[in-house]
Each structure stands twice: as structure tokens, then as C-alpha cells.
């Protein structure tokens, strides 16, 4: 049984290798004195082995649990949020319907391989006159048909591949650009920070959608991007990384001044290791929340580009393009041609917002304590 008062251990930060560093700097007596003050036996190790689980303390003074435990606590809080779980269920259902809407094939010069042989969509989305043009919803065609007699239900299912794919891929790639640049700007400062932030300021002077509309025609002639999918994704990445870089930079400016970062520098840990293992993991939470919410924004932007006829090929099943194609039918009174693609966009963006709010609450380490105080009142 330890004789130490547990209250004196609260908030303590113990750095592996610190005793050896003190001994080298001030002599063996100082190192021995520090070892006596910390009875635990710590094996000698390199500076890179700074203990991650004890690198940060919460404002309450208690040691922050290891990353695995923080994720477990966040998932537990997220599961208790019913609206967030409903949103997650909607996203999963829509993603499954989109992925399995039509067979997935990989073609080479010699052979075609079907990765997913079955189809949830009852008709080929490009097949015309499967029923009379602009036919209203029925049992055979739940969403009706468009001006060319194509089944709208099949087209909405397949169109989810484009719209949802653009949203998810664009956000992931934008994170891949914005997070490293924001971390570099915030940690190193100086001229590097000035250059990156001035580029962000210049691009931020243009409205998000207007800048994307201007970029798409520039990218379309480039053969390296292939079809319109990657043209739209690239345009949205160019305009989307700015917010992540600026947000992470602000968080890094705060985290880099904390004691465990200063201690890591004193022990000679390389800057690259400090940024990767200690700075970014403790600054990334607001960026994760923002990225979750931005998926909906990017989906709306992709739909807007499709509505304007930019990026994807004419006749595409992308939801925004379907809205554009159905304008003439809507004027003629055929409401179903545009209502169902619009509802699909609305439902997915709503689900993303519900999940984003849930992620924001789940990643708040003080959420449980605040809820407990409210229940006690």
C-alpha cells in the first residue's frame, strides 16, 4: 500500500527520461534527488518515448486518459445521443442503398470483374421509356419517371454514388491538405505561417461556391482528372481546405505552449515527432467536428454545381443534375421529377448535421460533468 496522498498525484505529469536529462545537465545528485521524489521505477529510454497517456491534463486537474479510452468515452456519449444515432442510421442506410444500387465492375483490357453482382435498383438508370414520360409515382415506379421515361427511383439510388461520394471524398482530401498546413503554420510560425495564412486570406476573399464555379472550367480540360467526378472533387478541395488550416492553426498556437510540449523540446525530441504525436492529436478535436458538419455543406455545393451543369456529364444521375434536368417538367406540373432528388439531398444533409452535433457533444470531455451537475439541481 502506497503511503502517498492520492490527492498529491492529481494532475502530475511524469516524463519518461527526465531523470536522465536532469542528471546529465546538473549532475548525478540532482538526478538522484528527482528520482527519490518519484518512487516509481522508470526504465531509461529515448526522448521520443515521452508518455502520451500523461501528456495532458484536463482543467479539473485529473490526468487525461489514453487516446483509446478517450475514444471509448466519446463513443459512449455519442451512443446516448438518440438524435445523433438516428442521423447515423440514415447515413448508413443511404450509403448502403447507393453502393449496392447497381453492380460494381472493374474492367481491364482483358477481363471485367464484378465486385458486387446484384442490384437494388429495379431498372438501369439510363434506360429510356421504361414507362410513359413524366409518369406519376406508382407501385411499379415509386418515384415516377422523368421526361425521357427513365425510372426516377433507380436514378436517385444510383445518383447517391456521385453526390455522397463527392461529399465524403472532397472532405477527406481537404483534411489531408488543411491539417498539415495548419499544423506547420501554427507550430513553426515565422515566414511559413505568414505565407500559408496570406494564401488562406486571399482565397477566403471569394465566396466558397463562387470560387468553386470559377475553378471547375479551369480544371475540365485537364486529362489527368478524367471524368467530371474528379473535376468537382478537386474544385471543392481547393476551396475546402482553408477552414481546416485556419482552425487547426489557432488550436496549435495554444497547444504548443503547454508544459509537455516544452518538456519534449527540452529533451531534444524532433519537431516532426512533437507535431505528430503531441500537438496535432491534442488540437484536432474542433477540426473533426467541423469536417463532419462540412460534409453536408460540400454535398450542397456539389448539388449546386450539378444544377448549373458544371463538372459531371449531361444526363448524369447526380442529384443536383437531376434537379436541373427536371426544371422543364416541374413547370409543366410534374412535381415528382424534382421533389425526390431534392428530398434525398435534404435528408442526407439533415442526417449529417445531426451526427455533427452529436460528435461535437461526444468529444467534449466536460459533457458528463455538466450533465451530472444539471441533474443534481
Question: Would you kindly provide a written description of the structure presented here, covering whatever features stand out?
Answer:
It is a multi-pass membrane protein. Residues 160-356 form the ABC transmembrane type-1 domain. The chain crosses the membrane at residues 84-104, 162-188, 195-216, 228-248, 287-312, 332-355. Keywords: Cell membrane, Membrane, Transmembrane, Transmembrane helix, Transport. The chain has 377 residues and is mostly helical. It folds into two domains: 11-45, no CATH class; 69-376, MetI-like (MetI-like fold). It has 16 helices and two strands. It has a two-stranded antiparallel ribbon with strand order 1-2. Helix 5 (82-99) crosses helix 15 (336-362) and helix 6 crosses helix 12 (285-307).
List its salient traits.
about 375 residues, mainly alpha, MetI-like fold, 2 domains, two-stranded antiparallel sheet, about 65% helix, about 0% strand, globular, transport, cell membrane, membrane, BP-dependent_transpt_permease, MetI-like_sf
